[in-house]
Amino acid sequence: MSKRDELIAKYAADLKDKCGVTPDMDLLTKVTIGCGPSIYNADAATVSGSDESELNTVKQNFLIKKLGLKDSADLDKGIASVMETYGKSNRNKYRAVVYYLLTKHFKKESAY
Fold first, then answer.
1. What is the DSSP string of 1-48?
2. Is the pTM of this model over 0.90?
């Protein structure tokens, strides 16, 4: 099992256990691959739900650039909704899981 496969399995477990979501493994794999090498870096692999600048980066680089969404208050609401789903008390919010949930939230699976 490759390192990436191990991470994908860990993300799938997070989706099931912490978010109550049954993951679409094909989409989760594509989202994880889309994250690139950041998934192997401990700091870059997670998203801080309380760091405003980090959430803005997610909005700019992922929602607007990658998914092609227009900047609006809906994007902030979507991010807040995903952070709520993941659990505010959860310290480690994996970037791939957050991106997967955002992709599902905005119904942009076609971007992958």
1. --HHHHHHHHHHHHHHHHH-----HHHHHHHHHHTGGGGGSTTTTEE-
2. yes
Token reading at 9: 């399995």
Taking the C-alpha atoms of residue 60 and residue 83, their distance in angstroms, rounded to an integer, is 17
Helix (H, G, I), strand (E, B) or coil at 71: coil
pLDDT in tens, 77-92: 999 999 999 988 888 8
Distances (CA, A) of 85 to 8, 42, 79, 96: 19, 22, 10, 14
Mean pLDDT within 18-29: 96
Helices and strands: H and E segment counts in the chain = 5, 2
pLDDT tens column, 68-77: 999 999 999 9
CATH of span 3-111: 1.10.238.120
Q: Return the domain boundaries, the chain.
A: 3-111
